Amino acid sequence: MFYVHMLLLLAVIFVGIRYGGIAFGLLGGLGVSILSFFFGIAPGTPPIGVMLIILAVVAASATLEATGGLKLLVQYAEKLLRKHHLKWFSLVLFVPIH
Q1: Confidence (pTM)
Q2: How far is CA 6 from the centre of its chain?
Q3: Residue 49 pLDDT > 90, yes or no?
Q4: φ/ψ bin of 35: left (φ > 0), alpha (ψ from -120 to 50), beta (otherwise)
Q5: Which of 9, 62, 86, 94 is most buried per CB count within 10 Å?
Q6: 3-24 as b/e, with b when 16 or more CB fall inside 10 Å?
Q7: Rounded to 10 degrees, what is the CA torsion of 3, 5, 11, 14?
Q8: Does the pLDDT value for residue 98 go beyond 60?
């Protein structure tokens, strides 16, 4: 039975990768639904902490984009990299990429 579950999981993942985008998430939900309803496997609890962290990051980046803060950060990064062009490799690790 393990191999049937694994085969179903891999099939859903490969079809989702083929279509890409939102289809990957939808097909993941379809795979969980099939495993739950047809095979009787109880789904686990959703990772609420991870989902809230993703929500916070998306909200912060949207706020930066809407207020022009992201453009300002990119300008500061450009000035920093131009001023210290000989040390760019160590600085590039701390500079946001736009």
Answers
A1: 0.49
A2: 23
A3: yes
A4: alpha
A5: 9
A6: eeeeeeeeebeeebeeeeeeee
A7: -100
A8: no
